[in-house]
Specification:
- The protein is an all-alpha fold and about 525 residues long.
- The longest helix is centred in the first third of the chain and has 40 residues.
- It is globular.
- The relative contact order is 0.11.
Length: about 525
């Protein structure tokens, strides 16, 4: 099996993440045009409950699998790797079956009494198979990540995205004559088909590697059956706190959807309009903001096994180096997106969604994007350093503050949906700062202030050049002017990053395909 370095593994996932984000925007753009913002709202309302169920099933198990397999691999204990994988797979499968039964049996009551719009029932039923499918896929991904082989994860994500796009748009269009609720269910059916395709890729790669291992057998000591207990105990010792931390996030996401809808109703907004506003926020604005997380996700995934190995060896210098690489890349790559989304919110929303009226939402939330991009590597570091409980407390504090602010602000007619946006912004900034303080306390690591100042200055200059280029109206087509302004200003930004020595030739050399052009 191929093992990649930390940066190479991150770049493989980054390439896949960029492809997925670009491909994934096809349904983000097309779906609102097929079923409207209200239909997107119905579709989105089912996801928070699915996220809670998936957190219960998987939670921190993939992370634990990646961490312990990385450690076992570093010690050459292949027998231990097999026991870790089998134990995790058994646990996830059982939990998946139980939670699927719970969802199917309680679907009518949940959609009527818990979720804010009863029209979500059909979508809710259609999505239930994803619990077992995603649960099993997550263990396979944790297995490959633990072996520091990111290619299967990357390929499966691309296959899942392509299948989901084709199936979601097709079924949404075909079922639209039966009503918005059935069109939303059709879009969710496409997501199920995509997950099945992604799992098929992981299964194929896993069994291909097993056949390869049989052709090259190694001598290994067979562990006793009693080793099952310590393996399960060790898996649970990490996964339960991580599950708790993610459960806080997932449950707050569920409560966020419920409280946002209830608060908007209290502000005098009708259910259909509230659902449409929620659909615009969660189905259009938030995905735009999360575009750069293709990088932060790839960094976080690669960071866990890399930091785990370094921590096991007591190599604090390497821990600091990896963290600095991750946060620097997240900061540098996320900043241009923040500039473009803040300056050009209205043309972006008009071109992508034909809904310029939602631009103020994007303009309000875009500046805190930089905190989102830094948050993932910081949280991954806490988990890899055996501090998941700290991440849990930080996330819990942020969730409590967010939910309190949603109730206070979104129910005020003067704020409405923007009250929910303000609450989300406060949550993002607060949790990221708390994670940063925790990492500083545990290992004495912090980003250099000079890096933030340099990137901030580059953002200001980039913004000025972008606005100047856009104002020239070089071409009559608005979308082409937007692309030209964004590309030209990003080039200016990258040049400034090189001049300021934030990035250098060695950083570029690590990027797949482009790196070869900069090698001496």
């Amino acid at each position: 099996m191929t093992k990649q370095t930390f940066i190479k593994g991150a770049m493989i996932l980054l390439a896949a993440g960029i492809i997925n984000r670009l491909l994934g925007f096809a349904p983000r753009i097309a779906l609102p045009r097929i079923i409207g913002a209200e239909g997107v709202g119905i579709y989105q309302l089912s996801y928070p409950f699915l996220t809670v169920m998936l957190t219960i099933i998987t939670g921190g198990i993939p992370l634990a699998v990646a961490k312990w397999i990385a450690e076992a691999e570093s010690q050459g204990d292949s027998a231990r790797v097999k026991y870790i994988f089998r134990t995790a797979m058994g646990l996830v499968t059982v939990l998946g079956i139980v939670m699927t039964a719970v969802m199917l049996l309680g679907a009518k009551w949940i959609t009527t009494h818990i979720l804010p719009d009863a029209r979500v029932y059909q979508t809710f039923i259609v999505m239930t198979p994803m619990l077992v499918i995603i649960g099993i896929s997550s263990v396979y991904r944790g297995y490959f990540q633990g072996k520091q082989n990111m290619i299967p994860t990357a390929v499966s994500q691309i296959v899942e995205t392509v299948l989901r796009i084709i199936a979601s748009l097709s079924f949404a269009y075909l079922l639209l004559p039966y009503g918005l609720e059935w069109a939303a269910a059709g879009a969710m059916l496409g997501a199920v088909i995509g997950e099945i395709g992604g799992l098929a890729v992981l299964l194929w790669k896993y069994y291909k590697d097993k056949r390869s291992d049989k052709n090259h057998p190694s001598i290994e000591k067979a562990p006793s059956a009693s080793n099952h207990v310590p393996v399960l105990r060790r898996l649970l010792s990490l996964s339960i706190p991580v599950t708790g931390s993610r459960m806080v996030g997932s449950f707050s996401y569920l409560l966020e959807s419920i409280l946002t809808a209830r608060s908007l109703a209290a502000a005098g907004i009708a259910t259909g309009i509230a659902t449409a506003q929620y659909g615009a926020l969660q189905g259009m604005i938030i995905p735009l903001l999360l575009l750069p997380t293709a990088l932060t996700y790839s960094l976080a995934v690669s960071l866990v096994p890399s930091l785990s190995e370094a921590a096991a060896r007591g190599d604090h210098a390497l821990i600091h180096k990896r963290l600095h690489q991750s946060l620097r890349l997240a900061l540098v790559s996320g900043a241009p997106f923040v500039v473009v989304m803040s300056l050009f919110a209205e043309p972006i929303c008009r071109i992508l969604y034909a809904h310029a009226d939602i631009a103020p939402m994007l303009k309000l939330i875009a500046p805190v994007g930089i905190f989102i991009y830094l948050q993932a590597p910081l949280q991954a570091a806490l988990q890899a350093l055996n501090k998941p409980g700290t991440a849990l407390i930080n996330t819990l504090i942020g969730a409590i503050v967010k939910l309190f602010l949603i109730v206070q602000l979104a129910s005020n007619p003067d704020f409405g949906i923007y009250g929910a946006l303000i609450a989300i912004n406060v949550n993002i900034v607060l949790v990221t700062i708390l994670h940063g303080i925790s990492v500083l306390r545990f290992i004495g690591f912090h980003m250099k202030l000079a890096d933030f100042i340099k990137v901030g200055a580059a953002m200001v200059i980039m913004g000025a050049s972008a606005q100047f280029t856009m104002n020239q109206q070089l071409i009559s087509a608005e979308w082409l002017n937007l692309i030209i302004a964004s590309a030209a200003s990003t080039l200016v930004y990258l040049m400034l990053m090189v001049v300021m020595k934030i990035i250098d030739r060695h950083d570029i050399q690590r990027i797949p395909f482009l790196g070869g052009w900069f090698k001496t």
